[in-house]
User: Fold this.
Amino acid sequence: MKHKPTTHPNHSNVDQYLSAANRVNTTKSYLSAVEHFEVHWGGMLPSTSDQIAQYLADFAPTLSVNTLKQRLSALAVWHKEHGFPDPTKAPHVKKVLKGINRIHAKPAKQARPLLLEELQAVIEYLDDVIQAERASSNTQQSAVLLQAMRNKALLLLGFWRAFRSDELVNSFVEHINARAGEGMEIYLPHSKTDHKNEGKTFKVPALKILCPVDAYLDWIYTAQLKSGPVFRSIDRWGKVSEQNLHSASVINIIKNCCANANIENAHFFTSHSLRRGFATWANEQNWEMKALMEYVGWRDIKSALRYIELKDPFGNLSISNQHLLDN
Assistant:
């Protein structure tokens, strides 16, 4: 028996799925780019290729080529989503961008990698804080103790899994299966490396030292987290928030922890420092590039090489290492 179509279809479920797709695809950078074009510059949408070319020319002296490319991508998405021809693909727009790249080319800024020995120094500092707080006479969990335990778990998980800040703050307890001495599995419904938005499971090893699994289990046990975000803000009274940390907070946590551990030039660290640090360590351990790219989620060799801090190929022969030859 054939089912008759309903006279008044309920579109709420369709709208729900469309809304979910928009939340994934319409990022903050996309909205920021569109606002910059319309409000800051005064452009009109839908736009023309002449307007796009003029927009590029006006901001060429102040914005990097990569930023301009990101703005173009956002404007292209806007036109496609609204059913208009894409003006960013016009030949003269491409020529203007090429000319900007030649005249205003600048070296790409790279986050300073947090190297393994630096990570170890930071964890030793956090362990000292944790030990001191636990040895105090306080009967309640202090804010200092909770923050140190959270930061330890965040840094170790971010390093050994080469996670971005958004992947860290969007990790949920109910999506994690952790076993002491064995490892852990983290399911992320969306991530930048999940190009098909199918959800992805990441495996994390249990290690003899600097173990991310033990740090995670200690943190959620102490904070009594049963569900919800793994990494949350903590107020000065030691109350753990129900909401996840903002991605920008991860940068401050990394910088502050490194500064407190007396790591030099801590202000140069960013949220990518953990990712670059792991890539550098893996390269030094002679990981095959294919295995490293698969583990981290890079699609091309160019992306991988940008993250790896290579050793000086001249080694002890370089002038900076002359003192080693003199001894």
About this structure: Confidence is low (pLDDT under 50) at residues 1-8. The chain has two domains: 26-103, 116-170+206-307. The longest strand covers residues 183-188. The radius of gyration is 24 Å.
